[in-house]
Structures are given as structure tokens and as C-alpha cells.
């Protein structure tokens, strides 16, 4: 099934990183920037399919390397957690037909150790920034009257409790409901809104975190296909939901999990 986005303009958030990154927060818990590799791969795939792509991330060096890889991509450097800066950065990007909300933040800690700062950081990126960027793009789509498609990258964690993921799980559950409400309100304007909900994805971070066979088995044993997802599995699902091939698909949270949530 060939998919073409010729003549379409796409915006992808969290599109910069070549590799997933781990940094340490004050409490020395790992902070995992989970979706960056998916975002970069999505931006490149959209460009290959003919779309004019605007890539958004907060690190200029990552954007520079992305443009070196694909010169047709337009870079925008902004921290999406900053509402005002995001408004200013996106006001001149022009008409957008396709939006991928991919930027995400996760600070993993036991439930009893969650701090207000960790809670706010996660919600600011995983929910508030998605709402804001979608408002900006959605208003333009509505004004033009030509419809559009929005896809957010959620997670199986929205529907399955994971130890030390209390805040992350809750942000993704909120994102799934935001997807449904957006689909309800924007649908009459022919703007479709869906999400993809991957299991563990074999980014560099995924391989690092799940390289131990015994640890991996605890998860893969619950996946009927018996394996984790690859980046292209997620990207292909995003492309499908963005495309005209899914014209009657709206308000869906699509598992990309090998059947994990079916069990």
C-alpha cells in the first residue's frame, strides 16, 4: 500500500534526536527522553513520502544534524514546555495539514517518591504541550476548511500499570482522553485525531533498558508476537493514521504492542 503526502505540510515535535538520551535529575533517577528517535524517523519518512516537513525540538545541534540528513526539512528550535515561546516559534510556520505530537518526557520513580517538580515536568510536555501545539495547528486547519490529521504518540502505559511509572502512565492516559475529545470536537471540521500506543520500542534506549534476556522475558512473555516493537513499526502506524488510507479512522488509540493489551 503506497502512501504519498505530496503537497502536504507536516509538523513533527520531538523530531531531533538521532539516539535516545538519558540524563540524571536532582534525585539521581534516570530521565528517559523516550520518543525522540521515533520523531526523527517519522520526520524523515514523511519527507520521503513527499511532505514538506517542519521539525520541532529543543536542541539546535539535533536540528542541525537532521537538516544535514534531509535538507528539505525546516527546523524549529523551542522548548514545548514553555507556552509563550512555543506560541512565538510556531506562529509563522504556515499552514499545516499533518501534525505528529511526539515529544515526551519521563522521570521514573516509585509512587511514594514522586515530587511536584517531576509531576509538573511530565504533564507540561506530555499533555499540556500536546494540547497547545494541537490548538495552534487545529485553529489553522479549521480556518482553511480543508481538514487535516493529527496523531499523538502515546503508550501501552496509558492502559497498563507499570512499576515506577505512576506519573508517566497517568500522562499517557490523559493523552488518550485528550485524543478522543479532540476527535469529537474537531471531527466536524474534517480534522481526524488519533494516537498510537506502542509497547517497548527498540530505540537505543529500549535496547539498553531491555538488553538483559531475563528482564526482557518478563515483558515479551506477555506479548503474543513474542518481541518488542521496532521504530519502523511505530512510524508505519503513524503514517497510516496520517494518510487518506485511514479516512474513516478518528478518535482511535491504536496499540502497536504485538497483542500485549489483548491479553
TrEMBL record:
<dbReference type="GO" id="GO:0050038">
    <property type="term" value="F:L-xylulose reductase (NADPH) activity"/>
</dbReference>
<comment type="subunit">
    <text>Homotetramer.</text>
</comment>
<dbReference type="InterPro" id="IPR051737">
    <property type="entry name" value="L-xylulose/Carbonyl_redctase"/>
</dbReference>
<dbReference type="InterPro" id="IPR020904">
    <property type="entry name" value="Sc_DH/Rdtase_CS"/>
</dbReference>
<dbReference type="InterPro" id="IPR036291">
    <property type="entry name" value="NAD(P)-bd_dom_sf"/>
</dbReference>
<dbReference type="Pfam" id="PF13561">
    <property type="entry name" value="adh_short_C2"/>
</dbReference>
<comment type="similarity">
    <text>Belongs to the short-chain dehydrogenases/reductases (SDR) family.</text>
</comment>
<dbReference type="GO" id="GO:0005997">
    <property type="term" value="P:xylulose metabolic process"/>
</dbReference>
<keyword id="KW-0521">NADP</keyword>
<dbReference type="InterPro" id="IPR002347">
    <property type="entry name" value="SDR_fam"/>
</dbReference>
<dbReference type="GO" id="GO:0006006">
    <property type="term" value="P:glucose metabolic process"/>
</dbReference>
<dbReference type="GO" id="GO:0004090">
    <property type="term" value="F:carbonyl reductase (NADPH) activity"/>
</dbReference>
<protein>
    <submittedName>
        <fullName>L-xylulose reductase isoform X1</fullName>
    </submittedName>
</protein>
<keyword id="KW-0560">Oxidoreductase</keyword>
Amino acid at each position: 500500500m503506497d502512501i504519498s503526502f505530496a503537497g502536504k505540510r507536516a509538523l513533527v515535535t520531538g523530531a531531533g534526536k538521532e539516539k535516545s538520551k538519558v540524563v540524571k535529575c536532582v534525585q539521581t533517577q534516570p530521565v528517559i527522553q523516550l520518543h525522540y528517535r521515533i520523531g526523527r524517523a517519522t520526520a524523515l519518512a514523511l519527507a520521503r513520502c513527499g511532505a514538506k516537513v517542519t521539525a520541532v525540538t529543543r536542541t539546535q545541534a539535533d536540528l542541525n544534524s537532521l537538516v544535514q540528513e534531509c535538507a528539505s526539512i525546516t527546523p524549529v528550535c523551542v522548548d514545548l514546555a514553555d507556552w509563550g515561546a512555543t506560541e512565538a516559534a510556531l506562529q509563522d510556520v504556515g499552514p499545516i495539514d499533518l501534525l505528529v505530537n511526539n515529544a515526551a518526557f519521563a522521570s521514573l520513580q516509585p509512587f511514594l517518591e514522586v515530587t511536584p517538580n517531576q509531576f509538573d515536568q511530565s504533564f507540561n510536555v506530555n499533555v499540556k504541550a500536546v494540547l497547545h501545539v494541537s490548538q495552534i495547528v487545529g485553529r489553522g486547519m479549521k480556518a482553511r476548511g480543508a481538514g487535516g490529521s493529527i496523531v499523538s504518540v502515546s503508550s501501552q502505559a496509558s492502559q497498563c500499570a507499570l512499576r515506577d511509572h505512576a506519573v508517566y502512565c497517568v500522562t499517557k492516559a490523559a493523552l488518550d482522553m485528550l485524543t478522543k475529545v479532540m476527535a469529537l470536537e474537531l471531527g466536524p471540521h474534517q480534522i481526524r485525531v488519533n494516537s498510537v500506543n506502542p509497547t517497548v520500542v527498540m530505540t537505543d534506549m529500549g535496547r539498553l533498558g531491555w538488553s538483559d534476556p531475563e528482564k526482557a522475558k518478563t515483558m515479551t512473555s506477555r506479548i503474543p508476537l513474542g518481541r518488542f516493537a521496532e521504530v519502523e513499526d511505530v512510524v508505519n502506524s503513524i503514517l497510516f493514521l496520517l494518510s487518506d488510507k485511514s479516512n474513516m479512522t478518528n478518535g482511535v488509540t491504536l496499540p502497536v504492542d504485538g497483542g500485549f493489551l489483548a491479553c
